[in-house]
Amino acid sequence: MQVPAPFDYVRATSVDNVLELLERHGPESRVIAGGHSLLPMMKLRLARPEWLIDINDLTELRHITVDGDWLRVGALTRHADLLASEVVGRLFPMVHDAEKVIADPVVRNRGTIGGSLGQADPAEDLTTVCDVLRAQVFITARGGERTVDIHQFHRGPYETACEQHELLTEIRFPIGVRQGSAYEKVERRVGDWAVGAAGAALWMAEDGTIADATIGLTALGLEGLAVDAAAVLVGQRPSEDLFAEAADLARAASSPIEDQRGPVDYKRHLASELTVRALTKALDRAAHSTAVQGG
Ligand SMILES: Cc1cc2nc3c(=O)[nH]c(=O)nc-3n(C[C@H](O)[C@H](O)[C@H](O)COP(=O)(O)OP(=O)(O)OC[C@H]3O[C@@H](n4cnc5c(N)ncnc54)[C@H](O)[C@@H]3O)c2cc1C
């Protein structure tokens, strides 16, 4: 049985206390939330923190709130909280699409949005969701708070803009009008990581053209958004041909590698096919969107 290297453990009592503990214990200390990523890494000795700072008592980091034009989600909000939230499903249905297929109930009951983004695994579903929805990340340090666009937050695999002495405290999603979003994932078996996935959001103009669009891919070798694929949609009337053109560009932007989940050709096919499906569903949802605030 794999066991982690020895470590010390402390339960933080407040955000200020976390920041003070991170400073006191230095680079060998790590925050732990759900532990579903960090503990497996520790068992494999890929992470060897000397101090674990447990943030699970910080209820102030576990909330889902509509605040003006923003949906604010605390970093300690569990996958299961997002899935159970009516307002999340109504405003951002792609979050529910993704959460239904992230791991299993055991992981979803404990794993958090902050831990998912903090882990920065390239196959992680919520990263694409946050990219597509143009989320902002709030990071708190002893000197104050700063906001980072999600595409600046992820600096590469397993690396984020959150420094060792900082804490990710909140994720904010801008609420749009006539907006629809969807996430389509293919997995080898229920609860598995994605073979490939695509997310899309559409913002419709009053005249029925597409005012704005974003497309993202998961586990298909694309960092950030498929910018060219989304650009062909803007100003156009939605149609099957238009979505097929965008899907071709998403496929061209993908750069998957062959692994135990499938060969390159199959994954490129997924980039295209799942983009069409996500766009089609997002369009349908935008048409039915009652846009919006409150809840
Ligand atoms: C069996 C299994 C299947 C899975 N399947 C999927 C899947 O299909 N799709 C998917 O996307 N994910 C999947 N996951 C990953 C899972 O969703 C994440 O591991 C988990 O939600 C991460 O959140 P956590 O709270 O457990 O993070 P933790 O393990 O506690 O932390 C992860 C990292 O984030 C840091 N961190 C945590 N919170 C903060 C914070 N507030 N501020 C700064 N840093 C922080 C930690 O220091 C650590 O480095 C799976 C995991 C397991 C175990």
Please provide a brief summary of the model.
By secondary structure, this protein is α+β, with helices and mostly antiparallel strands. Helix content is 36%, strand content 25%.
Describe this structure in words.
The chain is α+β, with helices and mostly antiparallel strands and about 300 residues long. Helix content is about 35%, strand content about 25%. It has three domains: about 10-55, 2-Layer Sandwich (Uridine Diphospho-n-acetylenolpyruvylglucosamine Reductase, domain 2); about 60-175, Uridine Diphospho-n-acetylenolpyruvylglucosamine Reductase, domain 3 (2-Layer Sandwich), CATH 3.30.465; about 180-285, 2-Layer Sandwich (Enolase-like, domain 1), CATH 3.30.390. A five-stranded antiparallel beta sheet has the order 4-5-10-6-7. Strands 1-3-2 form a three-stranded parallel beta sheet, covered by helices on one side. Strand 2, helix 2 (about 40-45) and strand 3 form a beta-alpha-beta unit. Helix 11 crosses helix 12. The radius of gyration is 19 Å and the shape is globular. The N and C termini lie far apart (about 45 Å). The model is unreliable at about 290-295 (pLDDT under 50). Bound molecules: flavin-adenine dinucleotide (FAD). Flavin-adenine dinucleotide binds near residues 102, 103, 116, 162 and 168.
Compute the number of helices.
12
Query: Which cofactors or ions or other ligands sit in this model?
Result: flavin-adenine dinucleotide
Residues in β-strands, percent: 25-35%
Per the CATH scheme, the topology name of the largest domain is: Uridine Diphospho-n-acetylenolpyruvylglucosamine Reductase, domain 3
Task: Note the overall shape.
Answer: globular
Taking the alpha carbons of the first and last residues, their distance comes to: 47 Å
- Tally of separate domains: 3
Q: Tell how many strands the DSSP assignment holds.
A: 13
List the secondary-structure elements in sequence, H or E.
Answer: EHEHEEEHHHHHHEEHEEEEEEHHH
